[in-house]
Design brief:
By secondary structure, the chain is α/β, with parallel strands linked by helices. The chain contains eight helices and ten strands. The longest helix has 18 residues. The C terminus is likely disordered. GO terms for molecular function: acyltransferase activity; ATP binding; ATP hydrolysis activity.
Length: 264
């Protein structure tokens, strides 16, 4: 059985159709990169996987069961904007996930439970290369270090699925390359299933094992919100090299920013 299955999945906001006709099977351990024009529903799709948005029509199943309608420890998420708590240290930022699970009212654990949370947090922090920054606060960290912290937060509860929404979009090229290497290593070591949105086609092929292109296949000039995006291309990435005709195919669909990227 596939880890995730979708059948005719749709997402509507009133009469505004965002996503329609999504059909897919994703196996555990895949790394799916998502590309498409801005506003085509990629982030909405990640929110559905996370559980913060509901399915309007169709179905989405995790291990054969309807995906939970709320976030859970089996799904971690990292956004482009650093989602860290400015008043907490690096250690406190990573510990808080476990402390909130143990004490939703106080958000703080004590005794043996706190020691366990601290030990787990230190392990996650060291995994992302921030072992020497335990006591630092977010404002003392560079952009790359803050994103490493956000990744450690997302991995604290040992999720099976990691959702990445343009996590490296605000980083300088050199730091971005380091973060790509980090994500690749964590994906392999922790046997994660990853869904990652990117606007960099070269990055999509460098990291993923499978590429999804989101786009609308139906357009009505009189009712621009009547139809939503779907997965127009589902391409396996075997040699880390895009098909030669892919830029032209994307350009034909109006995805100019992607088609004009410098490819490997």
């Amino acid at each position: 059985m596939s880890l995730l299955q979708a059948k005719r999945l749709e997402k509507h906001y009133g009469r505004h159709v965002v996503l329609e006709g999504l059909d897919f099977n994703v196996e555990a351990g895949e790394f799916v990169t998502l590309v498409g024009a801005s506003g085509c529903g990629k982030t909405t799709f990640l929110k559905i996987l996370l559980g913060t948005e509901s399915v309007s029509r169709g179905e989405l199943r995790l291990d054969g069961q309807p995906i939970p309608g709320e976030p859970g420890p089996d799904r971690g998420v990292v956004f482009q904007k650093y989602s860290v708590f400015p008043h907490l240290s690096v250690l406190g930022n990573v510990m808080i996930a476990e402390e909130l699970r143990d004490s939703k009212l106080l958000g703080k654990s004590f005794g043996a439970a706190r020691r366990r949370a601290r030990d787990k947090a230190i392990t996650r922090i060291e995994e992302v290369g921030l072992g020497r920054a335990l006591k630092k606060y977010p404002h003392e960290l560079s952009g790359g270090m803050q994103q490493r912290l956000a990744i450690a937060q997302a991995l604290m509860m040992r999720p099976r699925i990691l959702l990445l929404d343009e996590p490296f979009g605000a980083l300088d090229p050199g730091i971005r390359q380091d973060m790509q290497s980090l994500i690749t290593r964590l994906w392999r070591e922790q046997q994660l299933t990853i869904f990652m949105i990117t606007h960099d086609l070269k990055e999509a092929f460098a990291l993923g094992t499978r590429l999804w292109v989101f786009d609308k296949t139906r357009h009505d000039p009189q009712a621009p919100e009547a139809f939503g995006a779907t997965i127009t291309y589902d391409l396996p990435i075997s040699e880390r090299q895009p098909p030669e005709d892919l830029p032209a195919r994307l350009a034909a669909r109006g995805i100019q920013t992607l088609a004009q990227e410098t490819l490997p």
